[in-house]
Amino acid sequence: MVISLLIPLALLAIVVLVIAGARSGSHQGGEDMIRNVYIYVVLFATLMMTIGGSVAAFMAMADMVAPAPYYQSYEDYRRWGIERELKEDGEVMAQLSEEEIREKYDAMVIAETERQVVRAKNSLVKSLGWIAIPLPIFLFYSRKLRQRQAAGA
Length: 153
Known about the structure:
153 residues; mainly alpha; two-stranded antiparallel sheet; 84% helix; 3% strand; elongated; membrane
């Protein structure tokens, strides 16, 4: 919510700076100001994207190493899950033994843990995209900024 309000305000501030830079000084100075603002905006945006991707990648790796525990207890599974499976057409089917119920529960817990790890791997790949795509753009523009500063100094 707060971020969605800050983005338009940041864009408005950039537009005001560009207009103020264009009006002040000579025509060449205004173009130079616009170029500098553009480079800084690109650097800021790509840096934020890279940082966000890095944080998301770290979180995905943490989920792969230590997935969240399964939320349903064995007692709840036995009470609610099996009773629903046993009723078919209003009749109760043959009762499962305690060992069979426990095996089904353990298999369900293992399957859920594996599902969480697969989701974390998928999230990691997506997060690496948020690093790999904007990082070269950031490096290109940071080099361009250093060249402009060296030429201007």
